[in-house]
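Q: Here's a chain of 171 amino acids. Please give me its 3D structure as C-alpha cells.
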Amino acid sequence: MDNWLAVFVIIIAVALLVQTAVLVALFLQLRRTHQKVGRVLGDLQARLGPILTRVQIMLEETQPRVSGMVADAAHVVYLARTQAQKVDRLFTEAADRLRSQLNHVDRILTGVMETLEDAGSGFRRSFWEPMQKATAVIRGVKAGLDFFRTRRQHREEEPAAERSHEEELFI
C-alpha cells in the first residue's frame, strides 16, 4: 500500500505542476493581451482625442448660433400664431358680415316677391276678371245669336220639309 500511496502522491504532484504551468501560461497570455489592448486603446485615444477636441470646439462655436436659431424659430412661431389669429378674426368678421348681408338680401327679395305676388293678384283681379266677364258676355251674345240663327234656319227649312212631304204623298 505504501507503493500505491507514493504513486498517488507523485500523480498529484505532477497534476499540480501541470496546473501551475497552465495557470502561468494563461497569466502570460492575459498579460500580453492586456498590453495589446492597452496599445490599441492608446492609439484609439490618440486618434480620437483631436477629433473630439475639434467636435467640442465646433459645438462651442455653433452653440450660440443654434441658440439664436432656436430663439428666431420661437419668434417666427409666435408671429405666425399672431397672424393666424388675426386672419381667423378677419375671416370670422367677414363671414358674419356676409351672413348679415345675405339675411338683408333675403329680406329684400322676400319683400320683392311678396310685392310681385300682390301686383300679380291685383293685375289678375283688375284685368283678367273683367276680361273673363267680357268673354262670358260675348259668349252669351254669341249663344243668343246662334240660337236665333238656328231658329230662323229651322223656320225656313220647315216649309220645304212640308212640301217634300206633300210631294211624297202626291206621288
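Q: Can you summarize the key feature?
A: The mean pLDDT is 86.
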